[in-house]
Amino acid sequence: MTDLTQRQIKILKHITEEFIETASPVGSETLEKKYSLGISSATIRNEMSTLVQLGFLKKDHLSAGRTPTSMGLKYYVRNLMGTKPMSAGEEIKAKEKVWDYRNEFEKLLKETTKELATRTRSMAIATTDQNAIYSYGASNLLEEPEFFNIDVTKTVLSLIDNTGFWFDIITKAGIKDKNATDDNQVVHLLIGEDLGMEHLESCGFIYQTYQAGPHRGILGIIGPARFRFHQVIPVVDYLANLVSTITG
Predict the structure, then answer these.
(1) What's the total number of domains in the chain?
(2) Which of 48, 102, 135, 174 would suit a FRET pair with 167, their CA atoms being 20 to 30 Å apart?
(3) What is the extent of the structural domain holding 155?
(4) Span 61-66, mean pLDDT?
(5) Portion of the chain with pLDDT greater than 70, in percent
(6) Which of 29, 49, 80 is the last residue of a domain?
(7) Could you tell me the CATH number of the domain that includes residue 188?
(8) Both 93 and 51 in a single domain?
């Protein structure tokens, strides 16, 4: 990974967080007015151009602003983002929602998928070792600007029953052992071109593996590439671990 200067890191962080909140390209004027960077607008623009050349940002065709690339978003998640763990109360409520199904694995997975979609306001997906797939929350996608594009929405919805697609991308990404630390990530993150399909450039997929008795699979969420990562990553991780630990 290319080493960035502290100034470049700060600019990338601010642009990414603005983009996550607004879904809009971010210009140098916004950074200059909103953040005390202590440098001129021209210097900010030069640094933004450098970040484009390095692959962390891309220029929007319709404005002078920049948005993070998939590489930029991953760098943000891995190096710059703080997380907002679920509170003890939230964990208890989530556990109560699925506890009664702990001895019925398929029902447990379905209810956990539903709970994940509700808590993250995304579309949740779960796979099983029997090549089954469960999904919930597709309507949540329609609240996000990225899915106002009918081609994007149609592509995602067409994948709900396509078990082959999910198993293929998970295999390509490599389901790592739960204790793997080579990417220092608790959960797995696929963004844009990682998904390998036209019209999914603006989408992201965050997932975690689970192993519940003889059952093994993934639990994850699909949504815009600009997930509110600090909020949803702890939820994905907690619920996948819950499936792994409470199964009877």
Answers:
(1) 2
(2) 102
(3) 88-246
(4) 79
(5) 93
(6) 80
(7) 3.30.450.40
(8) no
Tokens (6 digits) for 239 = 């619920």
Q: What's the whole-number mean pLDDT along residues 176-189? A: 56
| Length in residues, the chain | 248
Q: Which carries the bigger pLDDT value, residue 82 or residue 12?
A: 12
165 with 203, same domain: the answer is yes
pLDDT in tens, 92-139: 999 999 999 999 999 999 999 999 999 999 999 999 888 889 999 999
Residue 173 is predicted with a pLDDT of: 66
Mean pLDDT to the nearest integer, 202-226: 93
Quote the pLDDT of residue 2: 65
**Same domain as 232, residue 159:** yes
HEC string for the chain: CCCCCHHHHHHHHHHHHHHHHHCCCECHHHHHHHCCCCCCHHHHHHHHHHHHHCCCEEECCCCCCEEECHHHHHHHHHHHCCCCCCCHHHHHHHHHHHHHHCCCHHHHHHHHHHHHHHHHCCEEEEECCCCCEEEECHHHHHHCHHHHCHHHHHHHHHCCCCHHHHHHHHHHHCCCCCCCCCCCCCCEEEEHHHHCCCCCCCEEEEEEEEEECCEEEEEEEEEECCCCHHHHHHHHHHHHHHHHHHCC
Same domain, 70 and 147: no
Handedness of CA 99, 105, 109, 110 (dihedral sign): negative
16 near 76, Cβ under 8 Å? yes
